[in-house]
Specification:
Elements: H1 2-28, H2 33-64, H3 71-95, H4 98-103, E1 110-114, H5 115-125, H6 127-133, E2 137-140, E3 146-150, H7 151-168, E4 174-180, E5 184-190, H8 219-233, E6 237-242, E7 248-255
Parallel strand pairs: 2-4
Antiparallel strand pairs: 1-3, 4-5, 5-7, 6-7
């Protein structure tokens, strides 16, 4: 019973921290409850969707196809569950940073991080989402690209960019390319979605803006605002190249700080 009590106590502390963070953010935004809810919804949905898809696939195998996963398959899927739950936990922690991001006081835990390995992990973690969206990923990397970055926030940048590419480029390939020199690294994510109008290309990086506000989606606005703030904290820059009907290409440049 002691283990349960400890778990309950931890959950209570996490919940209180979330509530405190929401309260601080809402006070700072003067009551923009709907906007903050959009941030919460976007981040948690992005992290939890793969888990839902994994479970659904397993249920279909057992109930409709009458096939019980082998030990190796089960271990593989449990490994996926573990990675995605860890990601959800990390994203929950990131939500607690919302008021800091808003005020420009974003703390970074810098360490040597391989950008290529981070992006590869993000792509692997979106396997089910890519399959459902009928998207393939063409990933180009020269090999290890090591820089001084915050590992989890770098993962968040790649995750948000890939999630947006899947959302807007469903049914078409996604191209991800990495490159680097001694001083900086570059991450490029290209989709084949509807593209972005010229007058929206700057606005999508603003807080709570969307590339396609008429669509019932959380859109580029929430994720890209977070991405832009993290990239700026790294001392980098993000830009978008796009033409309506021809997809969008997001380019992130990061100093390696080695």
């Amino acid at each position: 019973m002691r283990t349960v009590a400890v778990a309950d106590d931890r959950q209570a502390r996490v919940l209180q921290n979330v509530l405190d963070s929401i309260g601080a953010a809402l006070r700072g935004e003067r009551g923009t409850a709907d906007q903050f809810a959009s941030v919460v919804s976007h981040e948690l949905r992005s992290a939890l969707m793969p888990i839902s898809l994994f479970v659904e696939a397993m249920l279909v195998d057992v109930t409709q196809n009458g096939r019980v996963p082998s030990r190796d398959e089960l271990m593989q899927r449990l490994g996926m569950f573990k990675r995605q739950l860890a990601r959800a936990n990390h994203d929950l922690k990131r939500l607690l940073d919302f008021s800091r991001i808003r005020s420009g006081q974003l703390d970074l835990e810098l360490e040597d991080v391989d950008l290529s390995a981070t992006v590869a992990d993000v792509v692997a973690g979106h396997h089910e989402e890519l399959a459902v969206a009928r998207c393939t990923v063409d990933f180009e990397s020269p090999g290890a690209i090591v820089g001084r970055w915050d590992r989890l926030r770098l993962h968040q940048v790649a995750t948000n960019l890939l999630s947006n590419a899947i959302k807007y480029g469903a049914g078409a390939p996604i191209h991800i390319a990495l490159s680097a020199n001694d001083e900086s690294a570059r991450l490029v994510v290209r989709d084949h979605g509807p593209g972005i109008e010229a007058d929206q290309r700057e606005a999508i990086f603003a807080r709570f803006e969307r590339a396609h506000p008429t669509q019932h989606q959380s859109g580029y606005g929430v994720g890209l605002w977070v991405v832009a703030r993290i990239v700026e904290a790294f001392g980098g820059a993000i830009e978008v190249e796009s033409e309506p009907g021809l997809g969008a290409t997001f380019i992130v440049r990061l100093p390696r700080l080695m």
